[in-house]
Amino acid sequence: MAEIITNEKKKVLSCIQPSGMLTLGNYLGALKNWKNMQEEFDCTYAVADLHAITVRQEPAKLRAQIYSTYAIMLALGLDPEKSTLFIQSHVAEHTALSWLLSCNTQFGEMSRMTQFKDKSAKHANNVNVGLFSYPVLMAADILLYQPDFVPVGADQKQHLEIARDIAIRFNNLYGDVFKIPEPYIPKAGARVMSLQDPEKKMSKSDENQNAWVAILDDKDTIIRKFKRAVTDSEACVRMSEAQPGISNLITIYSVITGKTPAEVEKEFEGRGYGDFKLAVGEAVADELAPIKAEYDRFIGDKAELERIFREGDMKAERVARKTYFKAMKKVGFVL
Length: 335
Ligand code: ATP
Ligand code: LTN
Fold this sequence. Notes:
It is a single chain. This protein is mainly α. The chain is built from 13 helices and 5 strands. It has a 3-stranded parallel sheet with strand order 1-2-3. A two-stranded parallel sheet has the order 4-5. The longest helix is centred in the C-terminal third of the chain and has 30 residues, at 302-331. It is globular, with a radius of gyration of 21 Å. The model has no long low-confidence stretch (mean pLDDT 94). The structure holds adenosine-5'-triphosphate and L-tryptophanamide. L-tryptophanamide is lined by residues 14-15, 17, 48, 51, 138, 141-142, 150, 152, 156, 159.
């Protein structure tokens, strides 16, 4: 029998929380890949606003951050004509499917999630049930769109594994409903570290503002933060376990310039940390400047942003409904 050849592109799904200023870590670990994958794959990307309220948010600030995160997605060059760009809370199937999945997820397996342990220690006065069950909602985000790949930073690997486990279990119990997705984690940049404590990941919720660079920081701020970055004592630009601060800067510089770490070491051979930090700051600022310029254009026109996301929401909903109803039917609900 002749082989059927289809031109269907493989599918990609990912989301980002509007829980604060997006950082260089978000950019290098995830968003840069979202852009790179747009031509080759059929991509769906969302602002995961429902996830943001697992920690306390001020309503007016949350609202502004949802617009701002969506505007950054457009400013990066994500194209609503090529990809589906939507807002998670506008597609009700996410919360609906997460209930079906919750009833097929064990308390024990959720208790092993390291991010839950970290975040509940950090927000000890608000260890809510949503924070605990957040990976189930994330599994629903993913499984509704039947993606082949999910581009994320290394910190999300455990959540992706649980999404796969949930999908495999569901399919075994009720019949094939979900595609089993593969994580897509970049080789370099998957874990950008804090500029002030290179043992910790760069995080937008870090109170020390010198620890992270925001995608929207201006050039002077970016250079100042890199100049203040904590470095090591060997006084040479070399990647090594003994030099976590410099290794982090080498990784950042190499992902942005496309040079290998060995080429970076060669470029700065015999030169001090000062020169190197300035070069990293400049490379980062030059990479982010056009994104900031585009962002300023998009954020100024709320009506246009709304028009774009409403269209994205509708495209996403059509796909999500199909999977959701299939899952409902298989579980035994009357439709
Ligand atoms: P928080 O820092 O408040 O916990 P977060 O930035 O980790 O939030 P998200 O905004 O949802 O959480 O992350 C979006 C994407 O950015 C995810 O794919 C995540 O893996 C990636 N990411 C976040 N921080 C880093 C980092 N320091 N290095 C590389 N990738 C990162
Ligand atoms: N939990 C993720 C954000 C997120 C996500 C998703 C990522 C929510 N839903 C679906 C990939 C796929 C985080 O990065 N903190």
